[in-house]
């Protein structure tokens, strides 16, 4: 027995062993503090089915991975790197003696890609799975596929404090649940939500908590800036104030997690990393700022970025639970109780919202480009399509979606594929390390410093050589520069290159940015230097962008843009670098282009030297390929609508007849000639008639009737004239045109009343099935009655109409008996 019997999780050890002995996938739910992360992995190391193989445990955060590994190793009386090891980004502490590896999630994906069978691994533990990170969902999907195809002996254990109740059933896995043990926590709210920044609100709450409560305090804040600001406001409190966040040096992280050596009270200012696996000894008070930072896709940088938002209710519950680990505690929530009820119940799975570029590349390497994996929630198809488009532009995927050697090389780098592509630039390793680090971190220079990324590289290198004074002269943020340098150093170590102290070359920085953002190479608007529009550029992706007035980059001819606000008609450039025009030319390809100029209403056919939407040069196209011409014209009609064609009365009448028969005879093959159907099938009926069309006027002259008539399969053409004739002959001998309706309502026969004397039955079409709608006209051609029952009209309404009209039209016959009077188109005969 490796842990104290007092740990609540001890109650489920035997049921868990039994479940894992007979099931390849098991779910464990145990509340915070139960010991699942720091007891269960060691308890399972000697299981017979493990047969001496290793255990890998995933943690979603680096701080948690290091801390959990340290606690596990301490329980064995060892240092990390012995029986218990850890692997996080840029850091590995394992040895041949290691049996249990605590790793961050991307590490497992890398290992699976290298060795899909996971040779030597008998159990994988996915801890804190409720967070539903993108990497955790991917790892679970890959592991389930490995279990089904390669390793029926591999066990997977999914653990968390809070889980979707439906998860075990969705996974087809047994649930082992620990009731746990926690002390009561008194949750207190503010009377109303605070306004302004969180730092002074949090500092006031900490002072109140220290005065009212016993024990150490854990304060949840969204990020490093808020942690530093709150710490500055607490300099005079009678307690040790310690930060805790992911980029903190290991020694300082360890200091925050352990009791103060001098016995003083401790205030730990932490990001969300302290929500789950980390145990901070002595905490009796939680102050929850109610905010959290989550990663979302950022169109400004083209990467993921951290966005501050409200905490979810389940996360707030986990945070408050930190105060009740060892004794009754108090949680101060810095929002109102009314607001708490309106918070989201839980965070959405990251796979449904995040940028999927890295995931898509991993899937291509795995050989599952169609994403056909046993997902809990499948990645959205449109996001996968966008990711594939980007990866093809980086050369990471071929046209069929398969990974290329370049794409495989990008997976060596634990970062977004954009930055990985930047880091693989030949001959620019030191500069690439600096640029990648700057793009991944916050901007170290103030906004008024301009948009040139080269200035950021210069400030970093000046600080590297000249220290704080050099950074201050550049107006740089020292804290940001320190983080950038730490990251750049890690990239240089991976690339095996020394630091670059020299002044960077603008064109080299621009070339690196263009490698990461191929759709953001930009050309100044206007033709020629004299006509150039300062500050206004067109991106190769098609968007117009603006460099702020007064920025030196506004007068460049070509740029590579890294960060921009793409909203609005023209985006605003935040970070960019000049690009050598020759580099833009090198990316260009000649293509035959046939397009419709909607402003001029003409077809344009030329050879264009292009980089995406950027046209660098043109030449006339001697022969226009028929397929390209037809495609451009069809696109023009779709864009401008069917109204660009000439719809004469004859064409509309013929079309209405067909549509009416389609409505009357749904079981037959009458084609759909509705506007949308015609637009959808332009290639089939209109394209063959577009020969010689080069302008909008030519489109209006295209004969539509033969084009549409070709849509009628045999024997429908003669049936059309039989079932839906254009005219009907009335008793007077006149041939009167019928007006058909596309919706299948009765066709209208507008005829003078006198021409129907003696006719009892209403005329019909559609083989006698559909009576026409008679518009009975006065001698002046105005409707006096609308009916489908002519017999009833003669017997009743006719006499009212006769009384009203015979005085106005005395020269026309108005007989007492319409049944016996001869039908006529003329006035009364004159008496001789």
UniProtKB/TrEMBL annotation:
Transmembrane segments: none annotated. Residues 205-367 form the Helicase C-terminal domain. Keywords: ATP-binding, Helicase, Hydrolase, Nucleotide-binding. Residues 823-832 have a biased composition (Basic residues). Residues 810-819 have a biased composition (Basic and acidic residues). Residues 810-832 are annotated as: Disordered. Pfam families: CON_HrpB, DEAD, Helicase_C, HrpB_C, WHD_HA2. It is an enzyme of class 3 (hydrolase). InterPro entries: CON_HrpB (IPR056329), DEAD/DEAH_box_helicase_dom (IPR011545), HA2_WH (IPR048333), Helicase-assoc_dom (IPR007502), Helicase_ATP-bd (IPR014001), Helicase_C-like (IPR001650), HrpB (IPR010225), HrpB_DEXH (IPR049614). Residues 17-169 form the Helicase ATP-binding domain. NCBIfam families: DEAH_box_HrpB. PANTHER family: ATP-DEPENDENT RNA HELICASE HRPB. This is ATP-dependent helicase HrpB. It comes from Deinococcus enclensis.
